[in-house]
Automatic annotation (TrEMBL):
SUPFAM superfamilies, alphabetized: DinB/YfiT-like putative metalloenzymes
Protein name in UniProt: Putative damage-inducible protein DinB
A Pfam cross-reference name: MST
Source species, domain of life: Bacteria
Gene3D superfamilies: dinb family like domain
Amino acid sequence: MSSDQDQRAVGELANYRDYLGHYRLTLERKCEDLGPEELAKQSVPPSDLSLIGLIRHMARVEQSWFQRVLKENLDLPRLDADDPTGGFHKVEPTQASADEAFASWREQVAAADEWLDSIDDSVLGETRDVGRGDAPSSIRDILVHMIEEYARHAGHADLLRECIDGRTGE
């Protein structure tokens, strides 16, 4: 969220977007100034959780919720569909792997923001089929879920970064 009091979000959708943008930026900052080996470091063995894995996972989450569910294109193949861990498995400590992960994530964030630019508060109560046999969810609930997903993983990223070089906070 913006620290500038004059830049506060106005409206429900704007508020969700502000929080979502804050947590996206937090995740990106946790990865700043690290090389591919550090980004791929699995800091809490035996978990395969890593910063680059979090970036890959969030690309997958952005694509699934925004491109598949919210844009109602459930037939779109999932990113990393062959990875049952959601993007965390088989992370390579290479620059190419890091570049690919960040490019995919940024592409999905841009596509999500494009979709968000096309809606307003009036549609937040509309529902979407989530494609798992669950009851449909409102756009509002999905956006809150996205904020929760980023907030949870920003906490993971904070711990991972602290294990790598001691950096804490934003």
